[in-house]
Amino acid sequence: MNGFLGTYYVNLDDKGRANVPAKFRTILEKDNNLNMVVCVMDDFLIVFPQDEWKLNEEKMNDLSAFDTADRNRLREFYSRADECEMKSGKVLVPSRLRKMAELNKEVVLVGMSRTFEIWSKDRWEKANPEFAEN
Amino acid sequence: MNGFLGTYYVNLDDKGRANVPAKFRTILEKDNNLNMVVCVMDDFLIVFPQDEWKLNEEKMNDLSAFDTADRNRLREFYSRADECEMKSGKVLVPSRLRKMAELNKEVVLVGMSRTFEIWSKDRWEKANPEFAEN
DNA sequence: TACGATGTGACTAATAGTGTCGAAAAGTGT
DNA sequence: ACACTTTTCGACACTATTAGTCACATCGTA
Do B6 and A81 touch (CB under 8 A)? Predict the structure, then answer.
Protein backbone atom coordinates (compact mmCIF):
# COMPACT_ATOMS: atom_id res chain seq x y z
CA MET A 1 0.00 0.00 0.00
CA ASN A 2 1.34 3.37 -1.04
CA GLY A 3 -0.49 5.83 1.10
CA PHE A 4 -2.62 8.68 -0.18
CA LEU A 5 -1.95 9.49 -3.81
CA GLY A 6 -3.59 11.57 -6.47
CA THR A 7 -6.05 14.38 -6.85
CA TYR A 8 -9.79 14.06 -6.48
CA TYR A 9 -12.43 16.64 -7.23
CA VAL A 10 -15.34 16.17 -4.85
CA ASN A 11 -18.41 18.15 -3.87
CA LEU A 12 -19.33 18.82 -0.29
CA ASP A 13 -22.94 17.93 0.48
CA ASP A 14 -25.49 20.31 1.97
CA LYS A 15 -23.97 19.91 5.44
CA GLY A 16 -20.34 20.29 4.45
CA ARG A 17 -19.38 16.63 4.23
CA ALA A 18 -16.92 15.28 1.71
CA ASN A 19 -17.30 11.83 0.34
CA VAL A 20 -13.95 10.13 0.91
CA PRO A 21 -12.67 8.55 -2.31
CA ALA A 22 -12.71 4.77 -2.15
CA LYS A 23 -8.93 4.47 -2.25
CA PHE A 24 -8.47 6.84 0.66
CA ARG A 25 -11.22 5.08 2.53
CA THR A 26 -9.46 1.76 2.15
CA ILE A 27 -6.28 3.15 3.67
CA LEU A 28 -8.11 4.63 6.62
CA GLU A 29 -10.13 1.50 7.24
CA LYS A 30 -7.13 -0.78 7.00
CA ASP A 31 -5.78 0.37 10.38
CA ASN A 32 -9.15 1.18 11.78
CA ASN A 33 -7.93 4.72 11.66
CA LEU A 34 -11.26 6.41 11.15
CA ASN A 35 -10.42 9.32 13.38
CA MET A 36 -8.50 12.18 11.96
CA VAL A 37 -7.21 15.56 12.91
CA VAL A 38 -7.72 18.38 10.45
CA CYS A 39 -5.53 21.43 10.62
CA VAL A 40 -5.55 24.74 8.77
CA MET A 41 -2.29 25.38 6.97
CA ASP A 42 -1.85 28.49 4.92
CA ASP A 43 -4.60 28.29 2.36
CA PHE A 44 -5.76 24.73 2.74
CA LEU A 45 -6.44 21.97 5.24
CA ILE A 46 -4.21 19.06 6.16
CA VAL A 47 -5.83 15.84 7.27
CA PHE A 48 -3.79 13.66 9.61
CA PRO A 49 -5.01 10.16 10.29
CA GLN A 50 -4.95 9.61 14.02
CA ASP A 51 -1.67 7.68 14.11
CA GLU A 52 0.11 10.24 12.03
CA TRP A 53 -1.15 13.08 14.21
CA LYS A 54 0.23 11.39 17.32
CA LEU A 55 3.67 11.33 15.75
CA ASN A 56 3.54 15.06 15.16
CA GLU A 57 2.28 15.74 18.61
CA GLU A 58 5.20 13.93 20.18
CA LYS A 59 7.54 16.37 18.54
CA MET A 60 5.91 19.15 20.53
CA ASN A 61 6.65 17.62 23.87
CA ASP A 62 9.83 19.58 24.34
CA LEU A 63 7.92 22.83 24.49
CA SER A 64 7.01 24.24 27.85
CA ALA A 65 3.46 25.24 28.60
CA PHE A 66 4.81 27.97 30.89
CA ASP A 67 7.09 29.70 28.47
CA THR A 68 5.28 32.38 26.53
CA ALA A 69 7.09 31.81 23.25
CA ASP A 70 6.62 28.05 23.45
CA ARG A 71 3.04 28.51 24.40
CA ASN A 72 2.49 30.65 21.35
CA ARG A 73 3.86 27.95 19.14
CA LEU A 74 1.71 25.32 20.77
CA ARG A 75 -1.31 27.49 20.38
CA GLU A 76 -0.64 28.08 16.74
CA PHE A 77 -0.65 24.36 16.31
CA TYR A 78 -3.61 23.32 18.43
CA SER A 79 -5.91 26.23 17.77
CA ARG A 80 -6.03 25.52 14.06
CA ALA A 81 -6.78 21.86 14.52
CA ASP A 82 -9.97 19.94 15.02
CA GLU A 83 -10.99 16.34 15.14
CA CYS A 84 -13.19 14.61 12.70
CA GLU A 85 -14.24 11.13 11.89
CA MET A 86 -15.16 9.21 8.79
CA LYS A 87 -18.77 8.16 9.08
CA SER A 88 -20.79 6.43 6.40
CA GLY A 89 -17.83 6.97 4.09
CA LYS A 90 -17.88 10.72 4.58
CA VAL A 91 -16.04 13.27 6.67
CA LEU A 92 -17.66 16.39 7.99
CA VAL A 93 -15.17 19.20 7.63
CA PRO A 94 -15.51 21.28 10.82
CA SER A 95 -17.34 24.46 9.92
CA ARG A 96 -14.80 26.91 11.28
CA LEU A 97 -12.03 25.29 9.27
CA ARG A 98 -14.28 25.24 6.25
CA LYS A 99 -14.59 28.99 6.51
CA MET A 100 -10.92 29.58 7.15
CA ALA A 101 -9.92 27.60 4.08
CA GLU A 102 -12.77 29.16 2.11
CA LEU A 103 -14.24 25.85 1.11
CA ASN A 104 -17.44 26.12 -0.81
CA LYS A 105 -19.14 23.28 -2.58
CA GLU A 106 -16.30 22.27 -4.83
CA VAL A 107 -13.15 21.02 -3.15
CA VAL A 108 -10.08 19.07 -4.14
CA LEU A 109 -8.51 16.25 -2.14
CA VAL A 110 -4.79 15.86 -2.67
CA GLY A 111 -2.94 12.78 -1.52
CA MET A 112 0.34 13.42 0.29
CA SER A 113 1.30 9.88 1.19
CA ARG A 114 0.76 9.81 4.94
CA THR A 115 -1.63 12.75 5.00
CA PHE A 116 -3.92 14.38 2.50
CA GLU A 117 -4.98 17.93 1.87
CA ILE A 118 -8.28 19.63 1.21
CA TRP A 119 -8.28 22.67 -1.05
CA SER A 120 -11.02 24.85 -2.36
CA LYS A 121 -11.28 24.19 -6.07
CA ASP A 122 -10.65 27.83 -6.86
CA ARG A 123 -7.47 28.09 -4.84
CA TRP A 124 -6.25 24.76 -6.10
CA GLU A 125 -6.62 25.71 -9.73
CA LYS A 126 -5.13 29.10 -9.15
CA ALA A 127 -2.07 27.47 -7.62
CA ASN A 128 -2.03 24.60 -10.12
CA PRO A 129 -3.41 25.81 -13.44
CA GLU A 130 -2.42 22.61 -15.20
CA PHE A 131 -5.19 20.83 -13.32
CA ALA A 132 -7.92 23.19 -14.41
CA GLU A 133 -10.55 21.21 -16.25
CA ASN A 134 -11.27 23.91 -18.71
CA MET B 1 -8.53 10.87 22.31
CA ASN B 2 -6.60 13.98 21.42
CA GLY B 3 -7.28 16.39 24.22
CA PHE B 4 -8.62 19.89 23.70
CA LEU B 5 -8.33 21.00 20.11
CA GLY B 6 -9.66 23.82 18.04
CA THR B 7 -11.11 27.26 18.47
CA TYR B 8 -14.67 27.96 19.52
CA TYR B 9 -16.48 31.26 19.57
CA VAL B 10 -18.99 31.29 22.39
CA ASN B 11 -21.09 33.92 24.12
CA LEU B 12 -21.23 34.22 27.87
CA ASP B 13 -24.78 34.20 29.15
CA ASP B 14 -26.27 36.93 31.32
CA LYS B 15 -24.46 35.57 34.39
CA GLY B 16 -21.06 35.08 32.82
CA ARG B 17 -21.30 31.38 32.02
CA ALA B 18 -19.76 29.82 28.96
CA ASN B 19 -21.38 26.90 27.28
CA VAL B 20 -18.68 24.23 27.06
CA PRO B 21 -18.47 22.82 23.52
CA ALA B 22 -19.60 19.21 23.34
CA LYS B 23 -16.14 17.92 22.48
CA PHE B 24 -14.55 19.63 25.47
CA ARG B 25 -17.36 18.43 27.66
CA THR B 26 -16.76 14.85 26.64
CA ILE B 27 -13.13 15.07 27.64
CA LEU B 28 -13.95 16.55 31.03
CA GLU B 29 -16.68 14.04 31.72
CA LYS B 30 -14.60 11.08 30.69
CA ASP B 31 -12.48 11.23 33.84
CA ASN B 32 -15.20 12.73 35.93
CA ASN B 33 -13.00 15.76 35.92
CA LEU B 34 -15.66 18.40 36.23
CA ASN B 35 -13.62 20.57 38.54
CA MET B 36 -11.14 22.96 37.09
CA VAL B 37 -8.70 25.61 38.08
CA VAL B 38 -8.70 28.82 36.10
CA CYS B 39 -5.68 31.06 36.10
CA VAL B 40 -4.95 34.47 34.58
CA MET B 41 -1.97 34.30 32.26
CA ASP B 42 -0.80 37.30 30.30
CA ASP B 43 -3.92 38.46 28.50
CA PHE B 44 -6.13 35.46 28.83
CA LEU B 45 -7.28 32.66 31.11
CA ILE B 46 -5.96 29.13 31.28
CA VAL B 47 -8.28 26.38 32.37
CA PHE B 48 -6.69 23.35 33.99
CA PRO B 49 -8.85 20.29 34.53
CA GLN B 50 -8.34 19.13 38.09
CA ASP B 51 -5.93 16.30 37.22
CA GLU B 52 -3.77 18.50 35.07
CA TRP B 53 -3.64 21.15 37.76
CA LYS B 54 -2.34 18.58 40.23
CA LEU B 55 0.48 17.67 37.87
CA ASN B 56 1.51 21.28 37.57
CA GLU B 57 1.33 21.80 41.25
CA GLU B 58 3.77 18.98 41.79
CA LYS B 59 6.23 20.71 39.52
CA MET B 60 5.96 23.78 41.70
CA ASN B 61 7.12 21.80 44.66
CA ASP B 62 10.64 22.12 43.39
CA LEU B 63 10.54 25.79 44.17
CA SER B 64 11.65 26.83 47.58
CA ALA B 65 9.24 28.52 49.95
CA PHE B 66 12.22 30.40 51.42
CA ASP B 67 13.62 31.81 48.24
CA THR B 68 12.20 35.22 47.47
CA ALA B 69 12.25 34.86 43.71
CA ASP B 70 10.63 31.44 43.86
CA ARG B 71 8.11 32.71 46.31
CA ASN B 72 7.23 35.53 43.99
CA ARG B 73 6.67 33.14 41.14
CA LEU B 74 4.49 30.92 43.27
CA ARG B 75 2.47 33.85 44.49
CA GLU B 76 2.03 35.14 40.98
CA PHE B 77 0.63 31.82 40.00
CA TYR B 78 -1.61 31.01 42.92
CA SER B 79 -2.94 34.48 43.48
CA ARG B 80 -4.30 34.62 39.97
CA ALA B 81 -6.02 31.27 40.15
CA ASP B 82 -9.52 30.29 41.12
CA GLU B 83 -11.62 27.15 41.07
CA CYS B 84 -14.64 26.47 38.97
CA GLU B 85 -16.85 23.63 37.99
CA MET B 86 -18.82 22.53 34.97
CA LYS B 87 -22.51 22.44 35.77
CA SER B 88 -25.33 21.78 33.34
CA GLY B 89 -22.77 21.83 30.58
CA LYS B 90 -21.59 25.33 31.43
CA VAL B 91 -18.78 26.90 33.42
CA LEU B 92 -19.17 30.08 35.33
CA VAL B 93 -16.03 32.10 34.84
CA PRO B 94 -15.19 33.66 38.24
CA SER B 95 -16.09 37.30 38.01
CA ARG B 96 -12.77 38.64 39.23
CA LEU B 97 -10.93 36.73 36.51
CA ARG B 98 -13.50 37.78 33.98
CA LYS B 99 -12.58 41.36 34.72
CA MET B 100 -8.87 40.73 34.71
CA ALA B 101 -9.02 39.13 31.27
CA GLU B 102 -11.51 41.75 30.07
CA LEU B 103 -14.07 39.20 29.03
CA ASN B 104 -17.28 40.66 27.80
CA LYS B 105 -20.01 38.76 26.10
CA GLU B 106 -17.99 37.36 23.24
CA VAL B 107 -15.18 35.00 24.16
CA VAL B 108 -13.06 32.43 22.38
CA LEU B 109 -12.15 29.01 23.76
CA VAL B 110 -8.87 27.69 22.46
CA GLY B 111 -7.86 24.07 22.88
CA MET B 112 -4.28 23.48 24.04
CA SER B 113 -4.34 19.72 24.33
CA ARG B 114 -4.31 19.19 28.10
CA THR B 115 -5.64 22.62 28.98
CA PHE B 116 -7.69 25.21 27.20
CA GLU B 117 -7.68 28.97 27.15
CA ILE B 118 -10.37 31.61 27.32
CA TRP B 119 -9.79 34.84 25.43
CA SER B 120 -11.90 37.89 24.88
CA LYS B 121 -12.90 37.90 21.25
CA ASP B 122 -11.32 41.29 20.71
CA ARG B 123 -7.94 40.31 22.08
CA TRP B 124 -8.00 37.01 20.28
CA GLU B 125 -8.63 38.54 16.91
CA LYS B 126 -6.12 41.24 17.49
CA ALA B 127 -3.50 38.59 18.22
CA ASN B 128 -4.73 36.21 15.51
CA PRO B 129 -6.20 38.19 12.64
CA GLU B 130 -6.55 35.12 10.45
CA PHE B 131 -9.33 33.91 12.70
CA ALA B 132 -11.40 37.04 12.34
CA GLU B 133 -14.65 35.97 10.80
CA ASN B 134 -14.69 38.53 8.06
C1' DT C 1 -35.53 39.70 57.93
C1' DA C 2 -35.14 41.96 53.60
C1' DC C 3 -32.32 43.28 49.86
C1' DG C 4 -29.23 43.14 45.98
C1' DA C 5 -25.84 40.68 43.71
C1' DT C 6 -24.49 36.48 42.14
C1' DG C 7 -25.03 31.65 40.92
C1' DT C 8 -28.00 27.55 39.22
C1' DG C 9 -31.30 24.64 36.62
C1' DA C 10 -34.62 24.12 33.19
C1' DC C 11 -36.64 25.04 28.95
C1' DT C 12 -37.05 26.40 23.84
C1' DA C 13 -36.05 27.70 19.29
C1' DA C 14 -32.52 27.78 16.03
C1' DT C 15 -28.54 25.73 14.19
C1' DA C 16 -25.36 22.03 13.18
C1' DG C 17 -24.34 17.24 12.48
C1' DT C 18 -25.72 12.22 11.18
C1' DG C 19 -27.71 7.99 8.80
C1' DT C 20 -29.88 6.28 4.95
C1' DC C 21 -31.32 5.68 0.48
C1' DG C 22 -31.88 5.84 -4.56
C1' DA C 23 -30.32 7.84 -8.85
C1' DA C 24 -26.47 9.09 -11.53
C1' DA C 25 -21.83 8.53 -12.90
C1' DA C 26 -17.66 6.10 -13.37
C1' DG C 27 -15.20 2.01 -13.88
C1' DT C 28 -14.71 -3.12 -15.27
C1' DG C 29 -14.95 -7.43 -17.91
C1' DT C 30 -16.51 -9.81 -21.81
C1' DA D 1 -20.56 -1.73 -27.23
C1' DC D 2 -22.99 -3.86 -23.62
C1' DA D 3 -24.31 -5.34 -19.12
C1' DC D 4 -22.77 -5.27 -14.62
C1' DT D 5 -20.44 -3.52 -10.37
C1' DT D 6 -18.67 0.09 -7.65
C1' DT D 7 -18.53 4.68 -6.31
C1' DT D 8 -20.25 9.25 -5.89
C1' DC D 9 -23.85 12.61 -5.26
C1' DG D 10 -27.58 14.89 -3.37
C1' DA D 11 -31.70 14.87 -0.76
C1' DC D 12 -34.34 14.11 3.25
C1' DA D 13 -35.67 13.02 7.90
C1' DC D 14 -33.80 12.64 12.20
C1' DT D 15 -30.80 13.66 16.31
C1' DA D 16 -27.60 16.49 18.92
C1' DT D 17 -25.83 20.82 20.22
C1' DT D 18 -26.00 25.64 21.14
C1' DA D 19 -27.73 30.33 22.50
C1' DG D 20 -30.50 32.71 25.13
C1' DT D 21 -33.99 33.55 28.61
C1' DC D 22 -36.47 33.08 32.79
C1' DA D 23 -37.56 31.74 37.39
C1' DC D 24 -35.62 30.35 41.42
C1' DA D 25 -31.75 29.54 44.99
C1' DT D 26 -28.00 31.13 47.68
C1' DC D 27 -25.05 34.31 50.04
C1' DG D 28 -23.41 38.27 52.43
C1' DT D 29 -24.69 42.50 54.38
C1' DA D 30 -27.40 46.09 56.26
Answer: yes
